[in-house]
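Appendix C reproduces, verbatim, an entry submitted by the partner laboratory led by Prof. M.T., so that reviewers can inspect both the input and the predicted structure.
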Amino acid sequence: MTDVRTFSAPVAASVPAGAPQGEPATDRSADQATLRADGVSIGYDGRRVIEGLDLELPARRVTAVVGPNACGKSTLLRGLARLHPLEAGRVTLGGTDVSAMSRKELARVVGVLPQSSVAPDGVRVAELVGRGRYPHQGWFGRHRSDDDAVVMRALEATGVADLADRPVAELSGGQRQRVWIAMVLAQETDVVLLDEPTTYLDVAHQVELLDLLRDLNHDRGTTVVMVLHELNLAARYADHLVVMSAGRVVAQGEPSHVLTEDAVLSAFGLEARVVPDPVSGTPLVVPVGRHRHGR
């Protein structure tokens, strides 16, 4: 199995002396990483997918957004990242309307991994990851002295350093996903938005990736927002859980308060039992289903 190591880039927010273990790093710029949606409406081809949505994502924490297919999770993430225009409302980062920020300015503070990413023809792994450094480079994309070192750390953290010279087009789906994540890490932003980052990964690499994102949050104080389908992984790794259904937020808060049997039935139409995870103590959703052992 490929080793996925802790990403130890230069810290953006170090842990203050005497800070309790287990708490993410914080600093005076924490408010700058608070992402808010106020009265946001988003649609496609004249059809509203999200309407009048209000949401505040806590700074320096890990948030997971869950919900059934086509409920608006990815649309919300694209709206937050300014990848899709809003029809109403506004998105702010640290109190600043993101629509007033230049693309490069926004990219210095928000890294995004969309659900479907396509690499340019012929690009190699190290070159693609290096493009994550673009927001920090000067005129004409001039490299900074530490760019190569940051790219290498991102490659090593995601376990793809041995693929650095390979064309991205030759990689498996799981390898490509880790390369895209390495590019986001190389961007070194205060906020990362990831749409289904565990797609194409086997269960071992899913856990390793989520461990890596947890490390990033703890070591650098990075605000992590990710859309996930796997409820039990979302409950284990998130500080803050947002449950969506039909384009609206139906519940949000700590996973232990939010992920109840009633919430699972209401949002997913799924009868389930919710019990403590024997490893983490977080909520564990056990579907009832129609076919059970012995019946």
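The chain is about 30% helix and 25% strand. Additional entries are available on request from the coordinating office.
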